[in-house]
Amino acid sequence: MSSKTSQLPSLNFEASFAGAGVRHVIGMDEVGRGCIAGEVAVGAALIDIQKTTWPENLRDSKLLSEKAREEIFPLLVEYAIGYSVGTATVSEIEEHGIIKALGLAGSRSIQGLLDQPTALAILKSEPVQLILDGNIDYLGTKSFGFPVATKVQADRDCVSVATASVLAKVTRDKLMLNLAKEYPGYGLDKNKGYASAQHRRALVELGPSEIHRISWLSKILQG
Fold first, then answer.
1. I need a surface site. Which of 49, 127, 180, 209 has the fewest CB within 10 A?
2. What is the average per-residue pLDDT within 9-32?
3. CATH number of the domain within which 129 lies
4. What is the DSSP letter of 145?
5. Residue 84's beta-bridge partner residues?
6. Is residue 4 part of a domain?
């Protein structure tokens, strides 16, 4: 097993905020940023860093098979205090660009947590830290006032973000499976909107649909 696939997430980064009185963190991760079709999604998982046991198979969603993600999904729902997955539409991606679209999706996922009574009670009464995967704070002013920390490979290293990554991936994949029925021929049930060879061939043969990110397709369609 490679060092990459053997990497296990921990609460080490989350615990670094305990000195500021933080017990609860919201891990956040995006899914579908690099797709050429479908919405982009951002998952948010609220966890208690004093709860030091979590599903043992937890990994970054990219390191898990589809079957493994589906199996661990209900265990992560139980582990997290609350979770939410927000999305931004294809039209929003086209109009605002992917970074602002991530901000919209992320703010919607946080709002989803605020709509849950148990999560809301914590978010209103205690200091809470947001952790984003990557090195870009795409939330900016859309963080609802919560402090934001970014960390490269947080989806690999941090329990909270790995949790969000799996919850978001499974949720978005289900959305793409539904779209595959509405827009047959593109192989969306397999590629989930990414630019696989089959997907690219279908675009040349069928042309793009209304769920494709048109501005992203010039090289494919010209090829």
1. 127
2. 97
3. 3.30.420.10
4. T
5. 44
6. no
Task: Report the C-alpha gap between 93 and 80 in whole angstroms.
Answer: 29
Over residues 18-28, mean pLDDT: 97
Task: Count how many Cα atoms sit within 13 Å of the Cα of residue 81 in the half-sphere of its side chain.
Answer: 24
Tokens read off for 98: 């992917």
Domain span holding position 48: 12-183
At 123, is the secondary structure helix, strand, or coil? helix
What one-character-per-residue DSSP string does 110-166 give? HHHHHTSHHHHHHHHHS-EEEEEESS----GGGGTT--EEEETTHHHHBHHHHHHHH
Tokens of residue 199, six digits: 């997907």
**48 DSSP β-pair partners:** 24
3, part of any domain: no
Count the neighbouring beta carbons within 10 Å of the beta carbon of residue 136.
12
The model's pLDDT over 45-84, given as tens digits with 9 standing for 90+, comes to 999 999 999 999 999 999 999 999 999 999 999 999 999 9
What pTM, to 2 d.p., does this model score?
0.94
**Inside any domain, residue 159:** yes
**How far are the Cα atoms of 46, 112, 131, 156, 178 from residue 123, in angstroms, in the given order?**
9, 12, 15, 25, 33
What single letter denotes the amino acid at residue 125?
S
Residue 193 belongs to some domain of the structure: no
183 vs 210: CA distance, rounded Å? 9
